[in-house]
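Thanks for the sequence, V.! I ran SigE family RNA polymerase sigma factor right away. Repeating your input here for the record:
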Amino acid sequence: MDRGSEDFEAFYERHRDPCFRAVLATVSDRHLAEELTAEAFARAWGHWRKVRGHPAPAAWVVRTALNTHVSWWRRRRREVPWDAAAVGAGQREPADDDATVVDLALRAALRKLPARQREVVVLRVFLDLDTRSTAAALGVAPGTVQSHLHRAIKALRAELEETNEREEITR
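Predicted structure:
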């Protein structure tokens, strides 16, 4: 095994789960998140020399997965479904075993955030990147990252408190 493949193997083992959780938190579908993450890691392997030198290779993988999702979504929205029931059948509620990956209430709250705020939360919290690395991965200014993170945390806190209050009332 050469040095490059050993580096990539160690990178993959270390970042596979955090990258998957970050993508899952953003797309909210376990199977789609698995496919997107696998595709992103395959692309990372194909461009390993470039990715290895990136300041945040895990962020590169997550960004690649999310860009792949956007590309898929853009192609998909131009398609005309043959059967409306088939379109609804592709969407599913998360199974109970998904709760071990990310708490369902948190996932529901994350889905309510605007896309950019969700991306900032994923990179800052799930991948534990600093503000500068997050800004570089998203192509925005560091102040924008801080602003989005502040708004996202405020919205998540309010949503989760509301969810807790509803659960207490129903008990």
